[in-house]
Amino acid sequence: MSHSPTPSLDNEHNMIVRRMADEGQWIFRYRSVLPLLLILPAAWSMANFRYLGDSHELQHLWGWCCVAVSFAGYLLRMATVGYVPGGTSGRNTRSQRADSLNTTGWYATTRNPLYLGNFLIGLGWVAAPADLLLVLVYVGFFWLYYERVIAAEEEYLISKFGREYTEWAARTPVFVPDVRRWCKPNMTFSLRTVFRREYSALMLIGLVFWIIDTLQHLVVERRLYFDVSWTAFMLSCATVYFVMRFLKKNTTLLDVTGRVDFDRFEPSVAEVYPLSPAA
After folding, report:
1. 85 - beta bridge partners?
2. What pLDDT, in 10s, does the model give residues 127-159?
3. How many angstroms separate the CA atoms of 275 and 87, rounded?
4. pLDDT for position 269
5. Are 260 and 85 in contact (CB under 8 A)?
6. Bridge-partner residues for 275, per DSSP?
7. pLDDT value at position 19?
8. What is the full DSSP assignment across the chain?
């Protein structure tokens, strides 16, 4: 009696990864829209919102703790982008391009430091209402979403760099960083590159937290109230945004020779590939 051959575990794994990569390519085309799906569970959570411990003061303190989480993600993005050299590209919704691998700095500790930064920024937002269910929904959505995006990116990088990439990937965590593996970046840190690249994220952090606090007052107290501290925080972020945007669009003060230029890509959707100048 003959038996039809069954695929090996490796083949099954490859098929799963291939399917995830195909799904990731589709997600990438709509990645600036899909995160808006989180508005639905966020709206439900806000509709049932109550101050933490029924105390406005405690809720206020918790909100600033959540800001610290988001700023941890923002600082990680700054620490990554500030070392990105020229001759690299971001990832837009149409094509992928990379010149050579960078295995230094934060890319020595995790393969996706900017996505980790995005996760922490969003985690601060969804944690602000102190709703565990909303946090779990966010973590699940982020996992399913970026797992497929990363699979699509890594498929491209494997085809581009082959063994060089697989050896680096084998020793570098996908997401959770191993700080023991940190090694000095090849480039010096460029604060001007950070200002040029990350001002939109700062504005978004300030604006979203201000909106969250305003909605909390509206739901619990049934009044439109703009808290002084949150408003000052939002306006500070907005001031930095408009100043940096003006400098970027109208001057060369933020231009740095030999550094990556993200102007061709949407700042809100671009992840930087782990790249460095070709040897």
Report:
1. 259
2. 999 999 999 999 999 988 888 888 788 887 888
3. 8
4. 31
5. yes
6. 101
7. 64
8. --------HHHHHHHHHHHHHHHHHHHHHTTTTGGGGGHHHHHHHHHT---GGG-HHHHHHHHHHHHHHHHHHHHHHHHHHTT-BSS--B--SS-----SB--SGGGGT-S-HHHHHHHHHHHHHHHTTT-HHHHHHHHHHHHHHHHHHHHHHHHHHHHHHTHHHHHHHHHS-SSS--GGG----SS---HHHHHHHHHHHHHHHHHHHHHHHHHHHHHHHSS----HHHHHHHHHHHHHHHHHHHHHHH-STT--TTB---TTS-TTTPPBPSB----
pLDDT for residue 267: 31
Residue where the block lists tokens 């619990």: 220
The amino acid sitting at 236 is S
* Residue 257 contacts residue 83 (beta carbons within 8 Å): no
Write down all domains in the chain, each with its CATH number in brackets: 9-92+99-189 (1.20.120.1630)
- Encoding tokens for residue 86? 């020229």
Alpha-carbon torsion (26, 262, 69, 79), positive or negative:
positive
